[in-house]
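Something for you to look into today, if you have time. Could you write out one complete protein record for me, on any chain you like? The space below this message is yours for that.
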Amino acid sequence: MTDRLPEGAEEYAQKAVLAALVVVGVYLALRFYWSVVAFIDVWAPREYADLFEAFFNLAVLLLVAAAFVRQLAKVRGTDTSEGGNVGEEDGAEGGEE
C-alpha cells in the first residue's frame, strides 16, 4: 500500500517550495518598499520628501548591488568572506617547514 515516489520527486518538491518562498519574499519586499515610500510621502515635509525618497532608493540599490556581487562571487567560487582558502594555505605552509 505504500508506493515509492519516483526518483527525484523529493528534489522537485523542494525546488517548488523554494520557488514559492522566493515569490512570496519578493512580493513582501515590494510591499515593504512601497509602504516606506508612502510613509515618506505622509510624514516628511513636502520640500524634503523627494530627497528622503532618493536616499531610500539609493540605500535599497546599494543593498541589492552588494547582495548581487556577493552572490556572483559565490557562483564563480571566489567568495573569500568565510576565510576558508586563507586558513588552508597558512596551515599547509606551516606544515612544510
Q: What stands out?
A: Residues 86-93 have pLDDT under 50 and may be disordered. The helical segments are 9-43, 46-76, 84-96. The CA atoms of residues 21 and 52 lie 31 Å apart. The chain is about 80% helix and 0% strand.
